[in-house]
Prior knowledge:
- The complex is a heterotrimer of chains A (about 300), B (about 325) and C (about 120).
- Chain A has about 300 residues and is mainly α.
- Chain A has one domain: Ferritin (Up-down Bundle).
- Chain A has 12 helices and no strands.
- In chain A, helix 7 (about 175-205) packs parallel to helix 10.
- Mean pLDDT of chain A is about 90; it is low at about 1-35.
- The longest helix of chain C has 13 residues, at about 55-70.
- With about 120 residues, chain C is α+β, with helices and mostly antiparallel strands.
- In chain C, the strands form 2 sheets. A 3-stranded antiparallel β-sheet of chain C has the order 4-3-5, covered by helices on one side.
- In chain C, a hairpin with a 7-residue loop joins strand 3 and strand 4.
- Chain C has a domain at about 30-105: Phenylacetic acid degradation B (Ubiquitin-like (UB roll)), CATH 3.10.20.520.
- Chain C has one helix at about 55-70, and strands at about 5, 15, 35-40, 45-55, 75-80.
- At the B-C interface, helix 2, helix 4, helix 5, helix 6 and helix 7 of B face strand 1, strand 2 and strand 4 of C.
- Chain A: One of its GO terms (cellular component) is cytosol.
- Chain A: This is Phenylacetate-CoA oxygenase subunit PaaI.
Amino acid sequence: MPDHVHTSAEDEHDSAYAGLLVNDAHWAFGTDFEDPLAGVDTTIPEGIDAPTLAAYALMLGDDSLVMSHRIAEWTSNAPDLEDDIALSNIALDLLGQSRLLLARAAKADDSVVPALPEGSPAPPEDALAFFREAHEFRNVRFAEVVNGDFAEATVRVLLFSVWRLAVWERLRASTDHVLSAVAVKGVKELTYHRDYAARWFVTLAQGTEESRSRLLAALDELWPLWPELFDTHPVEAAAAASGVGVDPATVREAAEAVLDQVLTAADVPRPEVARRSGVLGRTGRDGMHGEALSRMLAEMQSVARAHPRGQW
Amino acid sequence: MTLTETPLDAGTQADLESHFEATIARNDRIEPRDWMPDGYRRTLVRQIAQHAHSEIIGMQPEGNWISRAPSLRRKAILLAKVQDEAGHGLYLYSAAETLGVSRLELTEMLISGRQKYSSIFNYPTLSYADVGSIGWLVDGAAICNQVPLCRTSFGPYGRAMIRVCKEESFHQRQGYELLTTMMRGTDEQRAMVQESVDRFWWPALMMFGPPDADSPNTAQSMAWGIKRNTNDELRQKFVDMSVPQAEALGVTLPDPDLAWNDERAHYDFGQPDWDEFMQGVKGNGPCNAQRLAHRRRAHEDGAWVRAAATAFATKEATA
Amino acid sequence: MSNLSAEGGHGAVPLAGVPTGVDVPAPEPEWPLYEVFVRGKRGLNHVHVGSLHAADDRMALLHARDVYTRRNEGVSIWVVRADAITASSPDEKDPMFAPSGDKVYRHPTFYDIPDNVPHI
């Protein structure tokens, strides 16, 4: 049978992918999407204040939801195919983190979930993502900034992942099983994001005159929002005190040290730009955002809100 | 390799040709280092490169809805799917590169309009149901085209297609699953699905190319084992496969001539508007200009990044 | 309607009269081509899975993880510049002296692993 050649070629192909394509691991959540927390112990440990846990999980979930949305906007727009794929991977990782965190928030305290019209089948994590107003989002303002060029994407991913990784390395020890499990998985993902961005940071800094000047401009643009990442919101203080969460102020030194390594390798000085103030002292964690977020949400939520009883 | 400058005598040329023909006749694969007729090489480059372009341009119509996906689950599925298309484009460009073309040159030919891509992507996506219709009908049609290509005579193309087909079957399933979920939803959603299927059915049939009588290249491509089935055979297969799926879904396919033919044991069906297809091929489709402008902008905006990486690598190598 | 001639792939595209770009130099300096080898799980050989472009080795590894493994845990990846591979054809009749012997398409992308190589 002349077809034997092709059959064996396919077998050989299969062996090349043994352990790679046998599962659906690359589909962000596998292919069973029904309950993001299926199989995870969601009971709230003794001594933990449920509303604090929910509010804290929302903050972390909103950070990655908004950041993921921005990075996903790069899809089909990256400088080359390889980086298009890399950026999509980063967006997918962050989206996966959000889904778990929003589901965790809803499970811990369902009063955070907005009321939907009767008959709406939207699961709680979708109600949180698609039916809250901008002022109810608790993400840091850094995540919502409108995209710029590829240098801006590089700086954005680098700063965000250096910060989040520093927090999440400690979050692995959370007394909440869910947050701890999410952090264990997330640390691997964030380490990759950081390495990817650090690599590009050095490359652009040392590449051409144009790439260096674009990189420095992007750094100056995002730097004013960097200190806000380490502010301690009362929810974060309470979450840290009860062992559920991490006070970001306590990881500042570690994060700065990592960032300094990258800056040194790239021969880029720390920017001398002042931090951006809030509104009446309030910033992203307080639900006080820039103009970009409501615009982003108007787009992101448009289909879900047009069909509040829709099945997706 | 100065010996390569030596002109071949007629005998050697004939040997090479007969060796090539014998490999094809054995249903064996041609590999990049094998001698191959120039026409074979060029036909392959045209087909593989334009297949790759189709994957890359194909990211746009669906990418149009990533930012508006109505649930976190749908957003992840769609993002992963569009990402896969970039991967498929990359595998295919790699296969084309084994034939002596550079990916950057192919990209230039795409954005200058000298090479084409599948006209299906010149249709707009107008509702979220289109994400489902593209998965079900467009990816379904693509699978009909692509599965036989896993056995194409050129090794790298066939191997790229094996990997593509594995992922593509997930794409079709997610599209169909989105539509079935929407059909269980509200009246508005059901209407949205029907309207979307009405718009994509005919363009999906066009994806197989014009009728065999109007496809003079098919015979040579089949003789070379590049192509394994004719346009009409594949179109028939797609229609036969889709009709029961449409019934299960609860939508009506917009073709009054669609009917089971007992004698042929196949469905009879009408012909799409080939004039509209030709307009798309000529660049006059609803989204041709937009798709190319998007690709051109992304490529040009990325030039400084690519140059920076090249410059950095050079510095590193000499440091 | 013969000028409509089109053949499938993802969808029908015209083939007649379309330029190929064969042997046309890249319009800007192109990142070198890398071949990617993956060991999907312990106990198996690294197997060629495809190729990609990258400016340097480190970037090639990062890209290979993204493109070919989706960063699956426990996967070992090799990347090697295509122009660093010395190859013979699996076919003894490989015409080393054929007209196109020095052409770039002789790079060993998708270099074939013989079917009968056991997983040692």
